[in-house]
Amino acid sequence: MTVTEKNAAHLxxxxxxxxxxxxxxxxxxLIIILTKSQATHTITPALLLHxxxxxxxxxxxxVFRGHWxxxxxxxxxxxxxxxxxILIGMAFWQAQQFLTVLLIPQGWEHDAINWQRAQxxxxxxxxxxxxxxxxxxxxxxxxxxxxxxxxxxxxxTLLAISVSSGMFTxxxxxxSEAVWLFSAAVIYAILREKSGSIWPSVIAHVIQNVLTFWLxxxx
Length: 219
What we know:
By secondary structure, this protein is mainly alpha-helical. It is 80% helix and 0% strand.
């Protein structure tokens, strides 16, 4: 890590930890409120969760006197990395589907049916926004932005990739998809590391989610 990169870090480890903790309290609290609510809604709660957490993360970074460009890696990226992210996202998704069909022939159909049942009653546009746009953006800012940047600054790239990818996998709480989630997170982290920007990992993440969304709604 260069001297310039060290001087660019604005949030301390304690401040970053406080932001993550506040986000956890907000996320859990909002889930409890939504779960206990008896009102019926056509907009998926995930849209509210992801949008509010995204805005809260960016707000807290500024409240703690951080900088989005350095602490969340919201920086310009070279066109080469953006194009690479598109190809990598598509290639990884295709490889995942191929191996899933090869190892568990009916696995993806079972997952698709369960996903469709979980989205029953919600408008398709709200599910798309939550799962394919706002959700990936928030997750990349949190895991490849804030958390990755902090760990890399303190302990190096390898540990930053491992820890941020592990936390990303745990957040999704899906043991059957754990290997794929961790593998995808490692790829996102490598894109973040090589480009120095969050945008390539956001693009790869969005592409994977969009393709999965398309697959699940098409059956």
